[in-house]
Structure formats: structure tokens, C-alpha cells
Amino acid sequence: MILRARLVLPVTAPPIEDGAVFVAGNQIRSVAPWRDLRPHLRESATDLGEVMLLPGLINAHCHLDYTDLAGELTPPKTFTSWIAAITAYKTGWSYSNYAQSWLRGAHQLLKTGTTTVADIESLPDLLPEVWEATPLRIYSFLEMTGIKSRRVPRDILREAVEKIDALRHANCRAMLSPHAPYSTLPELLRRAARTAQRRKWRVSIHVAESVEEFEMFQNACGEMHDWLKRNERDNSDCGIGSPVAHLARNKLLGENVLAIHVNCLARGDARLLAQNHTHVVHCPRSHDYFRHPQFERARLARAGVNLCLGTDSLATTRKNGKQPPELDLFAEMRALANRDKSADPIEILKMATVNGARALGQPGKIGEIASHALADLIALPGPKKLKTVYESVLEHSGKVSASMIGGRWVIPPGW
């Protein structure tokens, strides 16, 4: 098919006025101005009208399991009190509660323009059934902890690997997620790192999310340190460097690693992340919910770190008025733009597209409109002024006008 639009935004190339995208099968064959593409093709075109055509958004960090927690947990005074609150809330949840929550979150992402999501899966038994219920491309990172359960790291990892090996799906994959440095033993980090390297898997891990976590590892003190010590965590790995340095010591930094949050940096951490080609995922609305220190986007970018965007979960998203929040990467882009005035709109869009593709090991395949990329596309209402096209993208709110994944309409034009 040929798709014609007032404006095509390839992201990796300048905008194309009156542009056209030629889709063959599940891939993009070519993208060009309509006047250049039209004479060479016999296929009839679908004119999408006054819209902007973008690559589908890539949500590099999400917890679909917790969608139905939207608005249920008030912002806490401390990060550790939030951990206690969400743990208590989930106690009464059944398999069907998790499944319903997951599916609701997937629907919210789909209607707001996400086509690929890196999701942390706390209940692997949901897979692969929930995969079958959505057209989204899903990277399910199986969450591993072990401090509270006192389980042996070897057994935790073996169980996750066996689950991954049993899963098969055309558009979805499962990989590993040691939860965080404070909630996993160093041995599990090292074992996960070796397995992921050998299997060529991505790894997603929360790191340096809170001041409490930073104090725990950097100074061997603070509320989180004392709380985990009371719960019999061996804190001998604390007081010898930052959480990022802790990952480096345990060989869990690298091109295949998505470091989630990274809200607290010690001297040298940005350089350490960049040298190891580790990707960092920022979740602006979650960051605001906890009132974390200012996210050091510019510092990380100057060091050469690949920066991506995620929604995190609705358990860590503030209400806006009486309506509960929804999973929406456009809302995350706006939140970042409002908080960080030095961030260029095109760079913010890249964080939600091409940068996420790099983090997931899919450069050139998703997150851009280019020849040989997968035909994952979304349409938005056209901008009033072409000079402010990227600002218009960030200002978009609500449902997208259309969405395509792998060359098939999942939200048809005019829905």
C-alpha cells in the first residue's frame, strides 16, 4: 500500500511535506515526497489527509501489571514506604486481577501511539496468553528478586530461563530483569549478566532510582539500608560506591543493558555508563510522583549515553484532576519538556522512538520511517505551523488518528 500524508516525520531524516510511504508486506519499501514516489508505483494510494505520519512510539520501560493501581497510592514521603504500600496492596490480587490490569494497560498504550513496549513482568504465568490478546510488540522482562524469599540465585535464574525458553511468539520476546541492586544479591546480577551475554538477550534493571538507594550503596546508611538490614539482607556490598558502580563491579553494564531511572549520579557514573554503552530510560511522570532530584539529562547526554523514555507504571503517576492517569508516552514527552526547558523537542521525540530502538537492539527496524524498517506507523493531526512541527508532536494529547504495526492497521484511519 501507499500512504500519503500532509507531513511525514521519519525522525532520522528531515520532515517531508506532502510525503508518501510505500509499504510492502510488513516493511517500509521507501519514503519520499508524493511527487517523486507517485510516477513509479501502480498501487493506489490511501490519502490520510491533514496528518503527520510518525514511526510508532517505543516505550522503553513499563509495568503493565500495575495499570489498575492508577490513582490508588498517594505519593509517599519516602521511597521505602511506597515499596511497603504497593507490596501490601498486591497481596489480595489474583491471576485475573493481574491479567485484567495488564490488558487494560496494553489497550491504553495502543490507543496513545505506542507500538513497542519493554514491560517488566512480575507474574510470568500471564505469558504467552496476554501476548495473544494485543497487536503490540512486547519485550517482557521477567522480574527476579530474592531478598525477601531467601531463594538461591541459581534457582531464581534457572526458573526464569526455563520460562523464556518455553515461550514462542512472532512479535513478542521474553528476557531478564534483575529487579534492582537493593532487591537482588550480587550473585544473581553476575549470573544474569553472563546468561544474557551468552544468549544475546537484553537486560532491564532499576538502578539509582531514589536517594535512599543511593545513600545505601554510596554511604552504607539511610532508611533503605536499615530497613533491608532488619530484613536480613547482607549489606556488605554497601559503602563502596554508587548503585551504578555496584552494577559495574558485578559486570552488569553493557550495550545489552537498559538502566532504568538513574536519578542519582555520583562523580564518574555518567562516564561509566557511556563507556559501557549502557542505555538509560527516564520516566518523567514517575520521577515527578516521587519528587526525585532533577534528572541529569544534559549531563548524561554530554557523556554520550543513549537516553530513552518510559511510562513506568500507573502506580507511580499522579492524578490530574479527578480522572485517573493513563499510560501515554506523549504525556511523558510533555512532562519532560515542561520540566527540562533545555531539551530540544526533536531530541525528546528521539528518546521515544529511535533511541528506544537502539536500547532494544532493533536500530533501523523500529522507531523510524526508513527503507527496510518495519511498518510501525502512527498518524496525528497535522500541525498548524510547519515551523513548530516537533512542538506539535509533543503537544498531542489523547488518541492517535491511526496506528499500524507490521503493515497492518491496528487502529484504522477514521476510527
Can you offer a commentary on this structure?
With 415 residues, this protein is an alpha/beta fold. The chain folds into two domains: 2-55 and 367-411, Urease, subunit C, domain 1 (Roll), CATH 2.30.40; 57-359, TIM Barrel (Alpha-Beta Barrel). The chain is built from 16 helices and 16 strands. It has helices at residues 34-37, 79-90, 95-111, 129-132, 153-166, 186-199, 211-219, 223-230, 243-249, 269-275, 284-290, 297-303, 329-339, 345-351, 354-359, 389-395; strands spanning 2-8, 16-24, 27-33, 45-47, 51-55, 57-62, 114-121, 137-144, 172-178, 203-207, 257-261, 279-282, 307-309, 377-381, 402-405, 408-411. Strands 1, 2, 3, 4, 5, 14, 15 and 16 form an eight-stranded mixed β-sheet that branches. Strands 6-7-8-9 form a four-stranded parallel β-sheet. α14 crosses α16.
How are the secondary structure elements laid out?
Elements: E1 2-8, E2 16-24, E3 27-33, H1 34-37, E4 45-47, E5 51-55, E6 57-62, H2 79-90, H3 95-111, E7 114-121, H4 129-132, E8 137-144, H5 153-166, E9 172-178, H6 186-199, E10 203-207, H7 211-219, H8 223-230, H9 243-249, E11 257-261, H10 269-275, E12 279-282, H11 284-290, H12 297-303, E13 307-309, H13 329-339, H14 345-351, H15 354-359, E14 377-381, H16 389-395, E15 402-405, E16 408-411
Parallel strand pairs: 1-4, 1-5, 6-7, 7-8, 8-9, 10-11, 11-12, 12-13
Antiparallel strand pairs: 1-2, 2-3, 5-14, 14-15, 15-16
Helix pairs in contact: 5-6, 7-8, 14-16
